[in-house]
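Q: May I have one protein plus its fold?
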Amino acid sequence: MLTASIDCKTYGSGPVMVLVPGSCSTGAAWRPIIDALGDGWTYVTTSLLGYGATSERRTADDTSIDRECEVVEEIVRRTGEGVHLVGHSFGGLVSIAVLLRAKVAVAGLTVIEAPALELLRAVGEEEHYAAFTSMTDDYFARFANGEPDAIAHMIDFYGGPGTFASWPPRVRDYAVATTPVNIRDWASARGMPLTPAMLATVDVPTLVLTGSRSHPAVSRANALLATHMPRGRLVILEEASHFMIATHPQLIAQLVSEHDAALRKRRWYRRAG
């Protein structure tokens, strides 16, 4: 059991969904989805390493995504194995890594635009892979040169021009304040091997969501995730982009609910409590 602090909040009752947010975010990001889903589930929210109340456990010498997985795995053990794991952005990539490690039982998986850049490289999608690396290289250089809102470059890559500027001041401020953590998240993502052969071992029903307005490299990476997972299914949300859990909560709630119902119908679940 981990001794470091873990941000973990539980709401409701019923089958368990563990909700893992992305970078520059906390478990509170899931509130629109929880509100849209309503009663009928136990929702367990968390924050990744270095965000919210979750202690950073990585170091400059150890940026392994395994450190992130250990936190999610601890939450699954506390909650009761056989959960529906739902991850957005970097939280989606961490959720995939949890399945690959196979240290806890997960009944089903929903991935919302994971930054699966190493999968792009593994299958030879060099142009899309270069889009990620060009963006991060520029972003890191801006930050190293003292540009305080350098992270806006990364946010706008995902959400489109003007996304960062459109956010409320407190949200922008939190993203700026956690920029060093986000840069470490990218090191974790780049250090995670991800190949079609690895994904072929993820033998749980998996829903993969991407947006019609998302960056082409992001959409392609997630299409590949769905293609190479034996039980993967891709859904493209019209008029949505990367930050869809805030902009399209009703539609996402409907898709997650339907996926969850299918899991229960097939008896993949063990109910909480």
Remarks:
- The longest strand covers residues 106-112.
